[in-house]
Each structure stands twice: as C-alpha cells, then as structure tokens.
C-alpha cells in the first residue's frame, strides 16, 4: 500500500513545487545572481544585479551575459513584473519594504561562512525557485569535491597587506575539506600576519587570490618580498581567486576541486 502511495505523493510534491515556482525572478545580490543562474530555468530569470557580469567579482560573469542587469532599484523590479526579488542580508531595506508592500516576494540571501552554510543556502534557494532537486544535486557536488582522508599539509591564505583568512571562513572551510590544515588554527575569521610570522610558521603552502605580481603599491609589496619568493616558489603557491569562495554555488565546487588537486600534487 505504501509503495502504491509513494509515486503519486512524489508527483504531487513536484507538481506543487512547479506551480509555486516564480516566473519573473530579479536578483539585486551578487551571490543570489550565481545561485539563480545555477538553479533556475533561464525563462524564470528577469534580470540580475549590477555586478553580475563583472569578471573580477562574479564567478558566473560569463553565464550572466545572457541576461539583463539592473541598477538595483525597486522601480526596475516593478517594471520587470518581478514576482520574486533577491536582496542581500542587510542592504536595500527601503527597497525590500516597498516591494513587499506591493505583494512581491522578497528573499534575503544569507551570508555563508562554511560549506554547511553554503549547502543549506543552496537547498533553500533551489526550493524557493521551485527546483529542490537541483539544490540537492549542487550540494552533492560540493560533498563530492571533498578530498579523501590522508596527510594534511599546512596552508595559509595570504592576501595583500598581509591579511590571512581564518579557519572559520568559507575559504578556511574549503581548505579543510580539500585536505589541508590551516597554519593558524586558532585565528577564527582571520587577521593580519607579518612576514616574520610566516617565516616562523613555515606553512607548507601559501594560498593566494591571484598570481604573483610586481610590487605596484604597499599592499602588493609584501607578496613580492624576496623572502616569500625564496620560501614559496610557484610550486608552493596555490591561486584561488576570491570570486570562487565568496558565494555558495558552482564557484565553490571549483575552489575545492582546485585545492584538492593541489593537495594531491603536494603529497607526491
């Protein structure tokens, strides 16, 4: 009896999700852009945020070129006939109130600081868009990118001016899932690390957000320091662009995949 009921109930659930799915989705948030592009039908997407096509800040800039972008105003969302608008966690309060007052569904994209956060956001966004199965599939891709157990080389994320993201950030969690050990395990969200501290810590690898560059200013001078060049030649530097770890989504899958491959190479 239960088997006979299971198929109709599953079909009913899918039908209900499809019936409730929004048809005019507008995103005013960079992370929402990327999830909408990954999880929604193209026909559902009315417009994306002003930043969606910017290669330097969006991991889905190329895919975003196929869709209109806005300046982020409530008037544009109304003119587009939006029935769902994504905003950031705390921005555009007046815009959200205005749109909500017009009967438009407004969803705020939460911040993620771990892969568990990311998977929860992916699943909830997919359900809101009417495609929960796509959320499960993307979450499964994140899990699949995780490295198998084994030796854990130490790694230190390092940015201009000496800032190092800590283990309780998305990048820090991605490092752990890829099989690395954070060189500063008690650093929380992170902080500034001097050149002298790096020499003392001697992490196995540095994780940078871009390829080595000339010392164009004081911020990049530290990264180009001769001591770092000697201790960390190219084969001990891993480049993971910021755009891959800022938001939940396919970019995060790519970041973990790259890190896991670098860890495997370091173990050879």
From TrEMBL:
SUPFAM superfamilies named among the record's database cross-references: Helical backbone' metal receptor
Signal peptide stretch: 1-20
Keyword presence, Signal: yes
The keyword Signal appears for this protein: yes
Record keywords: Signal
UniProt superkingdom: Bacteria
Protein name: ABC transporter substrate-binding protein
Organism expressing this protein natively: Phreatobacter stygius
């Amino acid at each position: 009896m239960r088997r006979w009921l299971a198929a109709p109930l599953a079909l009913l659930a899918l039908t209900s999700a499809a019936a409730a799915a929004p048809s005019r989705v507008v995103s005013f948030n960079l992370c929402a852009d990327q999830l909408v592009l990954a999880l929604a039908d193209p026909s559902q997407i009315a417009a994306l945020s002003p930043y969606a096509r910017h290669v330097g800040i969006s991991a889905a800039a190329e895919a975003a070129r196929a869709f209109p972008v806005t300046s982020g105003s409530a008037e544009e969302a109304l003119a587009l006939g939006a029935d769902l608008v994504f905003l950031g966690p705390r921005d555009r309060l007046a815009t959200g109130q205005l749109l909500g007052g017009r009967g438009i569904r407004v969803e705020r994209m939460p911040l993620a600081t771990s892969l568990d956060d990311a998977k929860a956001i992916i699943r909830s966004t997919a359900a809101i868009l009417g495609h929960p199965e796509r959320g499960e599939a993307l979450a499964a891709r994140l899990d699949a990118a995780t490295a198998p157990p084994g030796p854990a080389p130490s790694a230190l994320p390092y940015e201009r001016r000496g800032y190092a993201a800590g283990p309780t950030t998305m990048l820090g969690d991605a490092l752990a899932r890829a099989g690395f050990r954070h060189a500063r395990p008690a650093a929380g969200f992170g902080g500034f690390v001097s050149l002298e501290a790096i020499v003392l810590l001697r992490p196995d690898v540095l994780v940078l957000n871009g390829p080595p560059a000339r010392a164009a200013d004081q911020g990049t001078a530290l990264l180009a320091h001769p001591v770092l060049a000697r201790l960390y030649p190219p084969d001990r530097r891993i480049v993971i662009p910021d755009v891959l770890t800022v938001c939940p989504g396919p970019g995060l899958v790519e970041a973990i995949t790259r890190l896991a491959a670098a860890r495997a190479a370091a173990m050879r």
